[in-house]
Design brief:
alpha+beta; 3 domains; rod-shaped; Beta-Lactamase; Heat Shock Protein 90; about 475 residues; 6-stranded antiparallel sheet; 5-stranded mixed sheet; Helix Hairpins
Length: about 475
């Protein structure tokens, strides 16, 4: 039979509890028995001494013994003990529980004689335990006190108490212990139930969830609503599963998008080249279709370059070559690369700088790509005969770079998606077939690698503004050195 972890440990717990209780009970029982025995033995001895002291003068008088017999029987009944007067020869002259129906009292007042009576074996002890030389049918504890007359030993006062009374007192104490033990067991059972409900069951659900995730079932949820550590683990697992599911969906969309973006230009290139090769396209028209092939090739080159860039921007492996550079000069140089396209569409740039030279710190090559992608995006969405506004300002210890167009804008519900890889709005697809949907993703990844932020403000039909930050590098007037200040 295969035991799971919970049953195994419950069995171990019960076994340890039972064995532990048995061992501890046995040990405590012996200690308690010894304590009760010593206490009663001392009480009996003191009682025997008290009787021997009080009644010793009357010990040799049979008449006096009969007079005190009733009193001693009363004492014996109240204390549950048996009191005897015994001379050194073992002859019993008084017994608080003696009945004359079985034996007759002789003329010397002797009730009966105890054979082999000898107390020399006691030594320094004043108590013995046993059947008192075969007189009793059960075990008794007997305490002895000597009776002397004129410094001569005449006999003993012996107080007997059944050993069962000691056992009864010990058991009474242990009955309370048993009740306590069973109460603890019941409380522990309650704890086990709470453990099963609050620990074992959630842990089992978590294990089931991990198994399901291993099988690829990322839609499985633990269903745990606890607020403790297991609940936090369950929430984290559910969150992880949802993110993995999103990544899985993203991967599928990624493959679908990249397949589409690669397949379309490759199909065009192959078709036109085959048409040129087999003479379907006449020589005078070949120049036009070669331009189309080059256009599609440029699409593939740009798409491949963007994918490689994104791969390089993995947060775990990205390596920045940070230095100090003039952001104003970098913006001017980037604008010049779009001069031909902007002239055709009559798009103009309006530049506003806070300073003639604005030093910042970062990876110049990658920040240049950020500016390139944002300007390219602004041109793509701008109307012909319009302006693009680029503003560089200082705020605190940061430089804010703003790139704003007055184009079609982005719908509010689509703003959160523009940073997703391969995401394209419908207007993007319709206006510029070269769009890969990776430009803004690259921008976001580069700025995150710099621990900087980028925001977007957009109104549909009005335009969009992208604003990102970089740390200022201030120039010390005293020593001419560039001091970078991080916010």
């Amino acid at each position: 039979m295969k035991f799971n972890l919970m049953i195994k440990y419950i069995c171990i717990y019960i076994l340890i509890a039972v064995l532990g209780f048995a061992c501890v009970s046995q040990m405590i029982h012996r200690i308690e028995y010894r304590r009760v025995y010593d206490s009663l033995a001392d009480d009996m001895y003191r009682q025997a001494v008290s009787i021997a002291t009080e009644y010793a003068p009357n010990y040799f008088s049979n008449e006096k013994l009969r007079l005190i017999e009733l009193e001693l029987k009363t004492i014996s009944k109240l204390s549950g003990s048996r009191i005897m007067f015994i001379n050194t020869s073992g002859e019993v002259t008084l017994d608080s529980q003696y009945t004359s129906t079985n034996e007759e009292v002789n003329e010397n007042g002797v009730l009966y004689t105890i054979n082999d009576f000898n107390l020399d074996s006691l030594g320094n002890e004043h108590c013995i335990k046993g059947n008192f030389y075969g007189k009793f049918n059960e075990i008794y504890v007997s305490a002895f006190a000597p009776i002397t007359n004129a410094f001569v030993m005449k006999g003993y006062v012996v107080v007997h108490l059944p050993e069962s009374i000691i056992a009864e007192r010990v058991n009474t104490t242990f009955n309370t212990n048993y009740i306590t033990w069973f109460t603890i067991i019941l409380l522990n059972l309650s704890f086990i139930i709470i453990y099963i409900t609050n620990v074992h069951k959630p842990a089992k659900n978590i294990l089931t969830a991990i198994t399901e995730y291993g099988k690829g079932n990322l839609s499985y949820r633990t269903g745990i609503k606890h607020k403790d550590e297991l609940g936090q683990i369950a929430v984290s697992l559910d969150y992880m599963a949802s993110k993995l599911a999103e990544m899985d969906q993203f991967q599928q969309r990624f493959l679908s998008n990249i397949s589409h973006d690669f397949r379309s230009p490759l199909t065009s290139i192959k078709g036109y080249l085959e048409a040129i090769s087999d003479g379907t396209i006449p020589p005078e028209m070949q120049s036009k279709y070669i331009d189309i092939v080059l256009f599609e090739t440029d699409r593939l080159t740009k798409l491949t370059s963007n994918i490689l860039t994104l791969n390089e921007l993995d947060p775990k492996t990205v390596c920045l070559e940070s230095n100090t550079f003039d952001i104003n000069a970098l913006v001017k140089h980037t604008i010049e690369t779009f001069e031909g396209n902007c002239k055709k569409r009559k798009i103009h740039f309006q530049l506003t700088y806070a300073n003639e030279k604005q030093l910042v710190h970062g990876d110049k090559l990658k920040i240049g790509q950020v500016i390139y992608n944002l300007i390219d995006n602004a041109i793509k969405f701008s109307n012909d005969n319009s302006n693009i506004y680029i503003t560089i300002t200082e705020k605190g210890e940061k430089v804010h770079i703003s790139i704003r167009d007055v184009g079609c804008g982005i719908p509010k519900e689509k703003l959160p998606k523009i940073w997703d890889r391969f995401y394209k709005s419908d207007s993007s697809r319709g206006r510029d077939k070269k769009g890969s949907g990776l430009g803004l993703s690259i921008v976001k990844e580069i700025l995150q690698a710099h621990n900087e932020n980028i925001d977007v403000i957009s109104t549909e039909g009005v335009g969009s503004e992208f604003i990102f930050t970089l740390p200022i590098v201030r120039v010390s007037i005293l020593n001419g050195e560039a001091d970078r200040t991080n916010s």
